[in-house]
Amino acid sequence: MAKSEKQCMIDGEMYNAWCSELTLERVNARVLVHKYNATTDEQASVRHELLQELLGSTDQEDPPFIDPPFRVDYGYNISMGRGIYLNFDCCFLDVCPIKIGDNVMFGPHVQLYTPTHPLDPIARNGLKGKEFGKPITIGNDVWIGGSVIIMGGVTVGDGTTIGAGSIVTKDVEPWTVVAGNPARIIRRLEMHPDTRDDVQHRIS
User: Fold this and answer.
1) Is 117 a catalytic residue?
2) Closest CA to 187 of 177, 198, 199
């Protein structure tokens, strides 16, 4: 049996983004995001319910704190751990899975881009051509500065810091500080002896 366009999308294969199923799911996601972005900090329970519907599942005891506005393509391809904070105006384009660990902080305007298009302009064919995607994985205890862009196919290791304005095109080693365009290692970190066992327990 042939794969659906949706399954091809999630698997990182070429797919038609304008099929009826995916078009409807994007519309539904935008409705939920619009409702979420209209909430206030006093509506924590409403926000949690909307995130549950948008993302599929979030931690019941420690749900993500997301300052609106927040934007996604589908939502259901995003998984978040405990202790997540997103500052204003983050945009996660989730045609492929976006996996985020525990205790991750996002500055404002952070953008995660899993979609990509063929480099051949004939194959790309504007809005008529097919596209594909690559997943993004972010480990535990990561701090991502404002206006960072992370491209599809990237894995960000545990304990890292990404400087504001960086564009991340390649995997980031654990326990490093990276910055720039493209992002490069500018410092390697060592865990404090008093916290090493606790942190190692949480990220194992």
Assistant:
1) yes
2) 177
